[in-house]
């Protein structure tokens, strides 16, 4: 009810429709498995995925700057078109080199919306109502994404059972539907038509030369100086463990691809429910307390999988749910500590840090799984998250603040 009272229904509906169109999950049950059956090596699968993360790292800042310059809506439009092309190309891939090239291109396309989508939403809320609603709106947007991803993932499992490349072709068709949705979006970039005029003069002066000083200033002082790498550790371990969900399900549990689709449907249903309640979790737990407790507790659960492998599926479920809450809260926290001009660039820079941390976890996941097995590697990654979180906390709170934010008082 509070959301409906504070934000025009049309803009909320358009945002949720956009998230739905970009969430086609037909390939979700086979993302890793499709590559593995073609390259026949965990290490090579890890290398392909590392190309993805390296591409995100390489293009985050440039595309964030482009998003600030050409307008956030235009940046999202460009992303939708390029991602559609990448999905079609993925369906035609069959060798390691093919997958690596397509993943690099797909990463390039995705970076046009990584920081830009959040910056568009935050500035739209700020200009029209209240930016404090960001975590709630984004969290519910994530819930929409999870529902669509879960439903299409179930269907995608059956499609992939018949012919795996078809799942990518169907995803491309759905992604293309985001273009007309984006054309109806208002522009939120400061200084552009339809945006808040209060920041217009600053936006007109924003250049590539301005970007690096802004990033350096924001990342050299509390709270982002320690918060961003702390969250990066969480993200890196998350993706390292996520690497094993599909091979564990198919090769250890013996599930069919269609059954994995149902498994992912369950994952996303729970994640959607939790993500939808992000605002309530923020109010009850608080941003500070969440980030002090969630990473080490998740790491402990991963260690538990190494001791009791039967707990793997429930732990995978909790892992997905925790990320559904963590990322909206993290983006709310970062947004609250940067100015509007250059916001997409700062968010992209934060994403770049997460990608730097993720690359060695992806490479390590493949090599360690070939050498040790899946379950011991999950336990090892959990230990890294526990010890790493403890090290950050011992060095000083990664959420030490230079200015109070109203939503953090609940923590």
TrEMBL record:
GO molecular function, one term: transmembrane transporter activity
Keywords per UniProt: Membrane, Transmembrane, Transmembrane helix
One Pfam family from the record: MFS_1
Superkingdom assignment: Archaea
DNA-binding keyword on record: no
Sequence intervals crossing the membrane: 16-35, 41-63, 143-160, 227-245, 257-276, 297-319, 371-395
PANTHER family per record: PERMEASE, MAJOR FACILITATOR SUPERFAMILY-RELATED (PTHR23530:SF1), TRANSPORT PROTEIN-RELATED (PTHR23530)
Protein name: MFS transporter
């Amino acid at each position: 009810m509070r959301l409906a009272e504070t934000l025009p229904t049309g803009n909320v509906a358009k945002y949720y429709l956009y998230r739905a169109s970009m969430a086609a999950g037909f390939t979700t049950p086979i993302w890793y498995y499709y590559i593995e059956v073609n390259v026949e090596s965990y290490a090579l699968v890890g290398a392909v995925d590392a190309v993805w993360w390296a591409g995100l790292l390489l293009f985050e800042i440039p595309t964030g700057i482009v998003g600030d310059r050409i307008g956030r809506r235009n940046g999202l439009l460009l992303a939708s078109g390029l991602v559609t092309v990448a999905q079609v190309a993925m369906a035609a891939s069959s060798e390691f080199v093919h997958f690596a090239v397509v993943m690099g291109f797909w990463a390039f396309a995705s970076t046009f919306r990584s920081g830009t989508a959040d910056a568009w939403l935050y500035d739209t809320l700020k200009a029209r109502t209240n930016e404090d609603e960001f975590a709630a709106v984004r969290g519910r947007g994530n819930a929409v994404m999870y529902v669509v991803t879960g439903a299409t993932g179930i269907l995608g499992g059956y499609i992939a059972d018949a012919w795996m490349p078809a799942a990518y072709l169907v995803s491309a068709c759905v992604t293309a539907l985001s273009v007309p949705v984006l054309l109806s979006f208002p522009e939120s970039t400061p200084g552009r038509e339809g945006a808040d005029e209060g920041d217009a003069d600053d936006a007109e002066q924003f250049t590539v030369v301005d970007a690096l000083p802004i990033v350096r200033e924001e990342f050299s002082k509390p709270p982002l100086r320690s918060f961003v790498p702390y969250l990066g550790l969480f993200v890196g371990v998350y993706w390292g463990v996520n690497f094993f969900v599909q091979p564990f399900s198919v090769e250890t549990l013996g599930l069919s691809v269609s059954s994995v689709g149902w498994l992912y449907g369950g994952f996303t249903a729970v994640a959607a429910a939790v993500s939808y309640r992000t605002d309530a979790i923020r109010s009850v737990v608080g941003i500070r307390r969440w980030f002090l407790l969630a990473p080490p507790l998740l790491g402990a659960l991963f260690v538990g999988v190494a001791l009791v492998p039967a707990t793997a599926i429930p732990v995978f479920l909790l892992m997905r749910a925790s990320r559904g809450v963590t990322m909206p809260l993290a983006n709310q926290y970062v947004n609250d500590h940067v100015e509007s001009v250059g916001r997409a660039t700062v968010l992209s820079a934060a994403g770049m840090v997460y990608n730097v941390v993720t690359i060695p976890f992806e490479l390590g996941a493949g090599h360690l799984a070939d050498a040790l097995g899946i379950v011991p590697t999950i336990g090892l990654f959990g230990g890294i998250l526990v010890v790493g979180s403890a090290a950050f906390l011992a060095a000083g709170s990664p959420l030490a603040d230079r200015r109070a934010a109203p939503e953090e008082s609940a923590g």
